[in-house]
Fold this protein.
Amino acid sequence: GLREVVKGAGILFNTEEELKNAIISLLNNNALYEEISQKCRDRAERYDIKRMAEDLIKLYSGGSNS
């Protein structure tokens, strides 16, 4: 589910009130903002199309680069 996809690289919410509180937390807590921002960047790099293609090529070629 979504919780497994996010894995700490975001804030999940169920209601408008929870969303509001999450936004306020990010605005008031720079350390939390920086932590989640970095996790989001890391997650985006993990799913970069070029990286995913290279990983698939390695997988199907037995892990070698030749």
Summary: The mean pLDDT is 90. Residues 9 and 36 are 5 Å apart (CA to CA). The radius of gyration is 17 Å. DSSP finds four helices and no strands in the chain.
